[in-house]
Here is the input.
Amino acid sequence: MTWVLDLTGIFVFAISGALAGVRTRLDVVGMAVLAFFTAVGGGILRDVFLGVQPAALHDAGYVLVPLVAAGIVFFWHPQVTRLLPSILIFDAAGLGLFCATGTEKALLFGLSPLHAVLLGVVTAVGGGVLRDVLSGQRPTLLYDRQLYAVPAFVGAFTLAALFEFGVRGPLAVLAAAVLAFGLRFLAMR
Amino acid sequence: MTWVLDLTGIFVFAISGALAGVRTRLDVVGMAVLAFFTAVGGGILRDVFLGVQPAALHDAGYVLVPLVAAGIVFFWHPQVTRLLPSILIFDAAGLGLFCATGTEKALLFGLSPLHAVLLGVVTAVGGGVLRDVLSGQRPTLLYDRQLYAVPAFVGAFTLAALFEFGVRGPLAVLAAAVLAFGLRFLAMR
Amino acid sequence: MTWVLDLTGIFVFAISGALAGVRTRLDVVGMAVLAFFTAVGGGILRDVFLGVQPAALHDAGYVLVPLVAAGIVFFWHPQVTRLLPSILIFDAAGLGLFCATGTEKALLFGLSPLHAVLLGVVTAVGGGVLRDVLSGQRPTLLYDRQLYAVPAFVGAFTLAALFEFGVRGPLAVLAAAVLAFGLRFLAMR
Here is the structure.
C-alpha cells in the first residue's frame, strides 16, 4: 500500500520534472534526466544522509516510473499541460506523502524527532530543489510565498508527534500526508 | 570545548547564509534553509564521504543554532549588517576551525594525510559553495582573489603535519585554526 | 591496467574542467577545484550511492592527477586549447571507460542490471554535470544534441549484458568502453 502511494508520488514528481524540461526546451534525454532526479532526488538525499543505499537502487519501479512519466510528457505534453491544475494537486499529494514517509523512515532508523522532521522535509522538497538547480533556476523552495516548505514541515511534525505517542503505521502516514496535502492545496488557491 | 567552538562556527556560517538570503530578498523560510545548509553543508559532505551518518543528524544544536541565526537576521538584519566587519572575522574563525576539525576527523577515520587535507578543505568551504549554488550565484570559492581556499588548505595541512608528528588533540586543532584564521584575516584587509 | 585507464579518464576530464575554468576566467585555485570535481565527481556520486567510501579518498592518484592537469592548463592553456579536438577524443574515451567501469562496479556490488546501468551513466556524466552547475551553466547533459548521455547508456547497457552472459573482466570493460567511445566520436563529427 505504502509502495503504491510512494510510486504515485514518484510519478507526479517525475511529471513536474519533465514539464520543467519542456518549458526550458530540453530534448527527450534531458527531460528523462530531470524527471528522474525530481522524482527520486529527495529520497536519495534522505537515504544518503541515513547511510543506507538509496531505495531507488533496489526497486525497478523507481527507475521505470520516471522514464514512463518522461515519455508521456514527451509525446503528449500539450494535453498534460492542459491538465496542469490537477497535476498540481497530485504534486501536493506527493509532497504530503513524502514528508510523512521520509519522517517515518528516519524515526525507524533511530533518529530523534527533531532530526527525523528535518529529513522528512528534505525528502519532500529535495527533488524539486535538484530540478531547479539543474534547470539553472533558483530553487522555488527559497521563495515560499506559495507555501511549499511549511506544509511539508507541518506534515513531518505531525507524523513525528503521532509516532512518539505510539500511533504508527500506514494510518499515521496517511493522516500526516492528508494534513500536509490539505495545507498545500489551500495555499495554492 | 571543541563542541562549543564547532557550534560557534555553525552560528557564524548560518549568519552569513541568512544574510545572503536577505540580499536576494528571500522570505524567512528561504533564509532558514540557506542558513542551515551554509552552516552544516560542509560537515555533511565530509561525513557522507567518510561513510558515516552526518553529525548534524545526531545533535540538536546543529539544527537549532542555524534556526536561531536565521531568526536573528530576520528580525534585526539592519543591525547585523552594520556589524558585518566583525561577522567576517567570525566567518574567518569558522573557516579556520572547520578546516582543522574536518582534517582531524578524517585522520581519525584512517585516511591518508593527503586525503584528510582534502576533506578538511571540503568541510571548511563546502557550506559556502552550497549557499552560492542555491542562491543562483557562481561559487565565490572559484574566484579566490580574497584568499578563501588557500587559508583553509594551509590550516588543514598544518593540522595533518602536527598529527603526523604526534601533536594531537585540541591544542593542535587550535594552532591550525588560528593560523588559517590569521591568513584569512590578513587577506581580507 | 584498469587503474591506468581509470587515471587516464580522470586526467582528461580534469583537463576539460580546468579549461572550463579558463573560459570563465577563474584563477588557479578555482581551476584546480573545477578540475578535481569534474574528474572525480561521477565516481564520488557512484560510491556514495553504493554506500562505500569514495575511491578518490583512498588513492593519491585521484587527487594528484587533477592537480597536475590543472597546472598544465594554467601554464600552457593556449597550447592545450589548440589541441582541443584531440582532447575531445580523450574526453570521449573517458566517457566510454567510466560508463563501463561504473556499471561493472555496481554489478559487483550486487545491484540489478537496470540499476547498474543507471549508476554507470551517473559515473560517466556526473562530473560534467557538477562542472556545469559550479560554473553557473545549465548542464550540457540536458541538451543532448551532441549525444552525450546516449553513448554512455549504450556502453553501460553493453557491459551489463556481457556481464549477465558471463563475459566479465577487463575485456568486457574494454569492449563496452570502445563501443561508447565510437558512438560518441561519431556524434561529434
Summary: The first helix of chain A runs from residue 2 to 23. The interface with chain C takes residues 21, 24, 26-27, 29-30, 33-34, 44, 48, 51-54, 56-58, 60, 63-64, 133-136 of chain A (CB under 8 Å). Helices of chain A lie at 2-23, 28-50, 60-82, 84-108, 113-134, 149-164, 170-188. Residues 2-188 of chain A form one domain.
